[in-house]
Structures are given as C-alpha cells and as structure tokens.
Amino acid sequence: MYNNLFYEVKDSISTITINRPKTYNSLSTETKLELTDAFEAANHDENVKAIIITGSGKKAFCSGQDLSESKEVNQETADAWVDEFDKLYRVIRSIEKPIIASINGFATGSGLQLALLADIRIAAQSAKFGMTEINVGLPCIIGSTMFWEVMGKSKTIDLILTGRLLQAEEAKEYELVTRVVADDALKEATGQLAAELAAKPPVGVALNKRWFKRMSDSDFNSCMQYASEAHTLAYESGEPQQAMTLFFEKRAARKG
C-alpha cells in the first residue's frame, strides 16, 4: 500500500510505522505524502479508536527531514517545501482520535515535531531528542513554536540555538515526553496505553481534542506563515546549502 510506511489496524488501533531505517526513518517528500494519507485513512476509519505513530528498527523514531532532498531546496522552492509540512501537520492536528508517539531511538528536527503533534509521547530509555536544524543552517520556526508551548522561553532558546540532544529522562524533565520505559518494554507499554485510550468514550475524546487544537491554532498559523519566509531567507543566504554540503562531505569521509 505504501513505499515508506507500514500501516496496520488491529483491535481498534491503527499503527503507522515509518519504514526507512537506512535513512533513520527520515521524511522525504513521498514519506510526508504517505503519512498524510495514512493519518487521513485512520481518521476516517470508524473502526479505529486510537492511533500509534512509530519508526521501524531500533535506531530512530524519525530523524526529520531527508537532507538529501533538503540540499536541493532553494529560495524559489522553500515555500513549497514548507507547505509539505504544513499539509501533513494540519491533517494530524485535525484528528479527533487519540494519537500516541512511540519513540524508539532518535527523534530529531521535524521527526521530533511529528512526535510533538501526538497527544501522548512514550519513549524508550535509549531515545534521544533534539531540534538540530541550526547545525545545517536552517531556521527552526515550527519546532521553536512547539517547544515554547511545552517548555517555555529559556529552555526553548537553549535547545534551538545549541541544537543539543537530550537523553530520554532529561526530555521527560523538559516535558517533551510523557513517559519513559525500558527499551524492551516500549511496544507492550504503547499497546496497553493505546488500548486504554481506544476504550474511552469517543465523543468526549473528540471534544477535548477539538479544544486542544483551538487553543493552539493562532500560534500554529503564525509559525507556518513565518516558517515560509524564514526558510526562503535562509536559502537565499546560502548557509543551508553550504552546511549540508559539508555534512555530506564529512559523512562520506567517515564511510570511506
């Protein structure tokens, strides 16, 4: 059904698994389109009462934007590139069923944003978290907005400007994740939580989620608008292109 995802519905629970382990489950354009379709399918399926989003393998939940595509973006195409995220994120935000992010490994950049769009985030002990865009010269407008809502000003500025990674327990202290469990307990703990949420009265869940969305609509709309402007200016400066070229050169040297 999908080239980059596994999609399963069992016992009223939809599980969406990003399946690009060789790229640490990064988000290509095709992957974003497939995620949009999968979330819409789960939303419209009356048999689905809860949704799990996770990544295949043990190394990554989602490492964020596929940099092999990012390096091809320029000031003329930055707006369309941001629009890919806008469409995916709006679909996820509109879902009135509970969503759990089951985080197994790295959740960075837009991969962490994907997790933050979930209602509850449950992480393996070995998971790592960060908004690392600064390291490749990209502004982190959407991520900053999500961080600000969860953590406030000081921690957001620290993490966005340094791009540093948090271990799972520190991420829990920062309220980026709700629960941390042993690596080998993640699947079972996620399944139990999903079953608990799936059993809740669906209208009550939907009405709560509708209000959660309304409370953050203004900030979300503002950040998406500025994200297009900021990424256009960034690519116009040439910094992301230079940083990503250096990134790929270093990676090739390590492999060599």
Automatic annotation (TrEMBL):
Protein name: Enoyl-CoA hydratase/isomerase family protein
Listed Pfam families: ECH_1
Record-stated family: Belongs to the enoyl-CoA hydratase/isomerase family.
Tree of life domain: Bacteria
SUPFAM superfamilies: ClpP/crotonase
An example molecular function term from Gene Ontology annotations: catalytic activity
Lineage: Bacteria, Bacillati, Bacillota, Bacilli, Bacillales
